[in-house]
Design brief:
single chain; about 80 residues; mainly alpha; about 50% helix; transmembrane helix; transmembrane; membrane
């Protein structure tokens, strides 16, 4: 391809703004961000619950593996 066949770049004239693409609606952007935040919070909550549950199971297994027989937690009466 020679230089004469290449397309010339269109530059805006001085003092004029270049044409921009259509701007998406701001409501759609916020809706997606809020949905992402809710999903992240749900994942965080499930992870926190799972970590607590696994920690409790690990403590119970450690107690049982040490040979103790009183590993159940006894909560005081309210």
């Amino acid at each position: 391809m020679s230089k004469s066949e290449s397309k010339p770049e269109s530059k805006p004239e001085p003092g004029k703004k270049p044409k921009s693409l259509a701007k998406p609606q701001s409501g759609d952007n916020r809706r997606g961000a809020i949905a992402g935040l809710i999903i992240a919070l749900v994942i965080l909550g499930v992870g926190w619950w799972l970590a607590r549950d696994l920690t409790a199971a690990s403590k119970m297994q450690d107690c049982l593996m040490s040979g103790r027989t009183n590993c159940n937690v006894i909560e005081p009466a309210r």
